[in-house]
Amino acid sequence: MQVILANPRGFCAGVRMAIDVVDQVLEVFPDRAIHVYHEIVHNKHVVGRFRERGVRFVESIDDVPPGEVVVFSAHGISPEVRAQAERRNLIAIDATCPLVTKVHSEAVRYARQGYQILLIGHRNHQEVIGTCGEAPDAIQIVETPEDIPSLDIRDPDRLVYLTQTTLSTDDARVIIDALRQAFPNIKSPPSEDICYATTNRQHAVRTLAPLCELVLIVGSQNSSNSKRLTEIAENVGTRAQLLDDVSDLDPAWFEGVNNVLLSAGASAPEDLVAGICRELVARFGATLALGDVVEENVDFALPGNLRKAMRARGIDPETRRIRVEPPQILEAIYGSTAVPLTIEGT
Q1: Same fold for the pair 2-12+196-298+327-340 and 99-182
Q2: Which of 35, 106, 161, 219 fits 118 for a cystine, CB–CB 3.0-4.6 Å?
Q3: In this structure, are strands 34-37 and 56-58 parallel, antiparallel, or unpaired?
Q4: According to the CATH classification, is domain 99-182 in 3.30.70.2690?
């Protein structure tokens, strides 16, 4: 059996930043209780590991005692949540992904210009809730093309669409095409809202899945981008399974399978991928191959208010920039080394 490791996979720079922010906050405020508003990212292992270190996850700002530290998750928040934190005199550290912040800024700008905004995304996703909070009177949510006839449109020439950053590019395109058919003059955002990492991971799966009989996506059930990866694999005709970790593996999945594609959602830690590799090498004698489709080398700075707190404690924040690079495949960690896979047309 050959296991192809999709590259890129796993942590994007925004998720890496959010996780590193909580790590740094634990170091900078060692004597304080650290609270995170919502799950920092949608992965049960990441959240569980922080809980073991004493981090408290809350669903309401009212659950954070006045004057304490709160970290806003990668998915973004509404202005009202930020105002609640200020009223409670909280030390607020914003770990919102910069690409989500970009969508928030677009929503504010278009609302001020008098546009109605059609936000393509999942109504109950925290990112969509936060974006809607930026301009609640101007935004309507579109989850499927079937939602379009029920939209309340004042002027079809003053419409713009925005998208949730973690959508499937395939699904988003279907909705965008339907919106353009219904409203030919609808305006698009100045640059793509679906984030580079989501797009790259989807492109890698779309490219590599046809080479395999089975696709494994590491990610939690509440991870939107992980679910989209399984859907994309199935859209190109390859059976796909979403699993949290090695304990979810089912030997029956591998009957008659010679080639497996292994990828991970943007919030899944790489050690979970390594654990699955070790199991497949040990159980099936699998060999590992590197499916390099898109090269990613991205870095983000830490949030400004955290940098300020670090400097006050003698820590240089420039030494703590967040960088995401492809992992090295070492036998001691993955159960085997890996050879490059030749991919035509990439």
Answers
A1: yes
A2: 161
A3: parallel
A4: no
Question: Annotated catalytic, 127?
Answer: yes
Out of 3.40.50.970, 3.40.50.880, 3.40.1010.20, 3.40.50.300, the CATH code matching 2-12+196-298+327-340 is: 3.40.1010.20
Structural class in CATH, domain 13-97: alpha beta
Catalytic residue among 39, 106, 127, 134: 127
Q: What is the bridge-based pairing of β-strands 259-264 and 214-218? A: parallel
**How many CB atoms are closer than 10 A to CB 345?**
4
Q: Which residues lie closer than 8 Å to 261 by C-beta, 6 or more apart?
A: 3, 4, 6, 205, 208, 209, 211, 212, 214, 215, 216, 233, 238, 291
For the chain, residues with pLDDT lower than 50 are: 346
Q: How far apart are the C-alpha atoms of 201 and 263, rounded to whole Å?
A: 8
- In this prediction, residue 193 carries a pLDDT of 83
Can you give the pLDDT at residue 255?
95
